[in-house]
Amino acid sequence: MYDDDNGLAKFGIIAGVVIVFLLLVLGGFFAFVPAGYRGVALKFGAVTGDIRGEGVHLKTPFISGNYNMEVRVQKEEVQASAASKDLQSVSSTVAVNYSLDTGKIATLYRDIGKDYKERVISPSIQESVKSVTARYTAEELITKRSIVSESIRQELITRLEKDGIIIHDLNIVDFDFSESFNKAIEAKVTAEQDALASKNKLEQVKYEAEQNVASAKGKAEAQRIEGEALRANPEVLQLRAIEKWQGNMPTYWGGGALPFLNIK
């Protein structure tokens, strides 16, 4: 019984080794390229120039193979430091969406290698940010952010297009300036707000003054019209006096007709 169990164990080990060996041998005949990738064909480790699409491909064991490179849109985010046109220190975070040109990935792998992000993309972003930032003042980097972003994108396209790297979008995630510049901007904004408040108050005072002048002119005009009417109709003066009279006779008058009592 013991010998039978020992024999089965040995058989299982041998079978396992054989299966692994067959898988390795058979696997050596196939190259697999996953979705979203392209395979750079290799022969004895050298780039042949052929590009393999998604799926399974035949290859010669131990002689040919492939290196898979992603061709889907990828994102690279870089911290960049630069100086503005007015020599202000600027730190920015730039996010770039890019993809690889499938027709150039063999050349990219051969000339630059699989670590193309560290060798080409990140340094190009840094240099593009420095180049464009130097064209604008610190204040313009804030007020013209969309223009600055597009300028950096165009600069990056010029630098990376020859390497088969396609730039889709670029976004400036953040601009950070020196503490002294931030305080200066804050002071300027406060001054502008105070100036606007003073201007609004002055406009209000001016408006109220204009209203008072208009009101005074209106009253003066009304008095002028009333005076002309009274001069044209003296009887109105007597009527007004009678309306105000409370029935008391004057204690003294110098003779003549009683005032306001011209009764016919």
Task: Give keywords.
single chain, 264 residues, alpha+beta, Tetrahydropterin Synthase, Chain A, 7 helices, rod-shaped, disordered C terminus
SSE layout:
Layout (H helix, E strand, L loop, with lengths): L1 H26 L2 E4 L3 E7 L2 E7 L2 E4 L5 E7 L3 E10 L5 E12 L4 H7 L4 H18 L4 H6 L1 H16 L4 E13 L1 H54 L2 H10 L20
Antiparallel strand pairs: 1-4, 2-3, 2-5, 6-7, 7-8
Largest sheet entry: 3 strands, antiparallel
Report the span from N to C terminus.
160 Å
Structural class: alpha+beta
Radius of gyration: 47 Å
Low-confidence stretches: 260-264
**Average of the residue pLDDT scores:** 80
* Structure annotation, total helices: 7
**Overall form:** rod-shaped
Looking at CATH, the homologous superfamily of the domain at 74-177 is Band 7 domain
Helix content: 40-55%
Multimer state? single chain
SSE series: HEEEEEEEHHHHEHH
Q: What percentage of amino acids are in beta strands?
A: 15-25%
CATH architecture of the domain at 74-177: 2-Layer Sandwich
CATH topology of the domain at 74-177: Tetrahydropterin Synthase, Chain A
Question: How would you describe what is shown here?
Answer:
There is one protein chain. The protein is of the alpha+beta class and 264 residues long. Among the domains are: 69 residues, no CATH class; 104 residues, 2-Layer Sandwich (Tetrahydropterin Synthase, Chain A), CATH 3.30.479.30. The protein is 52% helix and 24% strand. The protein has seven helices and eight strands, in the order H-E-E-E-E-E-E-E-H-H-H-H-E-H-H. The strands form three sheets. A three-stranded antiparallel beta sheet has the order 3-2-5, with helices on one face. A three-stranded antiparallel beta sheet has the order 6-7-8. Strands 1-4 form a two-stranded antiparallel sheet. A hairpin with a 2-residue loop joins strand 2 and strand 3.
